[in-house]
Amino acid sequence: MASKTLSDPVKGFTEITAQEKSLALPHFTAEDAFEIGVLIRNRLREISENPAVVNITLANNKQLLFHAASRPGTVPENDNWVARKRNFVLRFGWSTWAGHNLFDMGDEERFKARFQLGETAGDYAIHGGGFPVRVQNVEGPVGAIVVSGLAQEEDHQVIVESLQAFLNSTH
Fold this sequence. Notes:
By secondary structure, this protein is α+β, with helices and mostly antiparallel strands. The protein has helices spanning about 15-20, 30-45, 75-90, 95-100, 110-115, 150-170, and strands at about 55-60, 65-70, 130-135, 145-150.
C-alpha cells in the first residue's frame, strides 16, 4: 500500500532554479538515466496507488534513455503531457515547476503572451513534473526528466528527491 509522503516542493522561481543547479550530476550516462528512472519509478510506487509515467531523454535530439509506467493504468494523454513538459524544459532550461511559479502559479495566458507563443503554446506545459538534467561544469541542461500522472507538485518533488538520493549514492 502506498503511504510514504513527499516533502513539500520549494516555491519561488529563484529558489527552485537554485535547487535545480544544486542537483547537477557529476556525469550523465545511459546507465545513470536507468538508475535514476528506476529510483523515480520505485518512489512513485511508494507514494501513490495512481499510475504515472517516468521519461528521461537527452537534450540534443530527445533520444529516449528511460520510459516506464509506475503502475498499470497510464494512458496516451500521459505521453502528451510528457512531451509538453519536456519541450518546456529543453526550450527554457528550467523545470516546469519553476515556470509554473514564475507565471503566477500557472497563468498560461501570461506565459503565452510573454514568449509570443501564439498557436504553438500548446506545445509547452508549465505544470510541475519536467526537470532539467544538469551536469557539473557543463553549460545548460543535457537532458530532461519528466513525470506525469500525479499532482504537479508530486510530479516535481519525486524527481527532486530521487535525484538527491542518486547524488547521495554516488558520493
